[in-house]
Here is the input.
Amino acid sequence: MYLKPVKSDGTSPSVEGPSGQYALEASATYYYDVPSDDQLFAIQLVGYTAGLVITSATIQDSSCDPRDVALISSTAGEWISESPSTAYVGTDGTGWTVASGVVASAGSALGGALWHVVDSGASRTRLRVVVGGTGGIVRVAWSGNKQ
Here is the structure.
């Protein structure tokens, strides 16, 4: 399933290409609402623009009711970053890196990352993507399994 981004101002970009590709603007933050009904799931981010700069892409969780805490909330404590040193996140492409579950792209080449999440107990999950000085075309996909 492809996920649709929501910009920090509450707007969503238009579909830019086939099957869930969206144009993310430079110097903006986007959130992807991740289905979290499954304890085991994967999230894949693919960058289709060679110059795309992502300063951070982080999985965040919340157990707060969506009526009280918005997907795009930036209030400290409402969404908690998942950044364990033992996280398994694969990356592919020159300039794509990962440290403690947080992915970054230096704008060197096409590429992406795949997070493997197990035993998530939170009622809500999102992927927070902070775009640096150069935006580009991105697709985010999700798949899940009950254990």
Notes: The chain has a mean pLDDT of 91.
